[in-house]
Design goal:
- By secondary structure, the protein is mainly α.
- It has 2 domains: 86 residues, DNA polymerase, domain 1; 191 residues, Intergrase catalytic core (hpI Integrase, Chain A, Orthogonal Bundle).
- 53% of the residues lie in helices and 4% in strands.
- It is built from 15 helices and 3 strands.
- The protein has a 3-stranded antiparallel beta sheet with strand order 1-2-3, with helices on one face.
- It is globular, with a radius of gyration of 23 Å.
- The relative contact order is 0.10.
- The N terminus is likely disordered.
Length: 317
């Protein structure tokens, strides 16, 4: 059982934990803290669950919370992420002396069926590239190209810096600082990505260290805060772009996310003959020691149902 820390209210401990994970991607931090506050709220509704202290984080309580998420219809992947967040908090609490053991470590993770990440059809690729071209917007073209032609994460596009881009009219590379794992990788760019990024950089006044700035960039700079575009800002641009589609086009692209461009890049690289190791290195799927994390890449390149359906036509008796 965890050691009760009565003089430390849960809010104080959660604030300490939030500070500890603050270097992670903001979206990840937000998910972790939402889970933990929700967990505390759930425990507080149980007999003896209020006022909350870390000693109430028992294996029974955590399993009960995960089961509760299943009862209200949360998907296995969502429950797995919740358990990961709780696990992370418990390991930190042990290191800080707030708990003696990790009650989440023995809880079985919900089974998650691996579904192939989105591979765009030829029609979808045609429509999305056409919509981008019609906008005649160098900034949008560069943001699209970095995901579609370079497979970057949305967080990597949002935080890309001027100093990390080595471009000219014939060749180009970028240094990507992975916000998820804290790793750095240097990518030579496909000509389409290099051209789009180069053209955009040539068109702007470099007043920011970031390539893509947000709407409140000037005010943020005046307050000595990062002025890069947010992930939500990119998602908003993506939503606006899709809304320019005709009724016929919309039926093809209405549910395509910006992140699907990264998944589609992996499928196209695989179809072009890239090895899983090559795709893993380019996408930043690597372990702490730098080795390719093939398991993650395999999930990115799983065959779609349509691909398997097409393969059925080649089966002979």
């Amino acid at each position: 059982m965890g050691r009760v820390v009565a003089i430390r209210p849960e809010v104080s401990i959660l604030q300490e934990f939030e500070t500890f994970i603050g270097a992670k991607d903001p979206k990840t931090v937000r998910i972790y803290m939402t889970v933990l506050y929700d967990l505390i709220g759930w425990i507080s509704m149980k007999p003896g669950g209020s006022p909350f202290h870390v000693g109430l984080l028992t294996q029974t309580a955590i399993k009960g919370y995960i089961d509760y998420l299943a009862e209200i219809g949360r998907a296995p992947r969502t429950r797995t992420k919740a358990l990961s967040a709780i696990n992370k908090f418990c390991r930190w609490a042990i290191d800080e002396g707030h708990m003696r053991r990790n009650p989440a470590s023995q809880i079985e993770r919900p089974a998650v069926i691996n579904i192939a990440p989105r591979e765009l059809s030829e029609n979808q690729r045609y429509i999305m590239k056409n919509l981008v071209e019609k906008q005649d917007d160098l900034r949008l073209s560069a943001i699209f190209a970095l995901a579609y032609w370079a497979g970057l994460r949305i967080s990597e596009v949002a935080t890309l810096k001027v100093e990390d881009c080595e471009l000219n009219q014939r060749a180009g590379s970028i240094t990507v600082r992975d916000s998820k794992q804290g790793k750095t990788r240097i990518l030579d760019l496909h000509n389409e990505a290099r051209r789009a990024l180069y053209d955009y950089m040539e068109s702007i006044d470099m007043t920011s260290p970031y390539i893509f700035t947000g709407q409140r960039a000037k005010r943020l700079r005046e307050n000595s805060k990062p002025d890069n575009i947010s992930e939500r800002g990119i998602e908003h641009l993506w939503k606006k772009l899709r809304e320019t589609a005709s009724v016929q086009e919309w039926e093809f692209i209405k549910d395509i996310r910006y992140h699907d461009l990264r998944h589609d890049w992996a499928h196209r690289a695989r179809a072009a003959g890239w090895s899983l190791e090559e795709i893993a290195v380019y996408l930043g799927h690597q372990t702490k020691d730098g080795a390719p994390a093939i398991g993650t890449t395999v999930r990115y390149t799983l065959p779609s149902r349509q691909q398997i359906k097409d393969r059925l036509q080649t089966l002979r008796g």
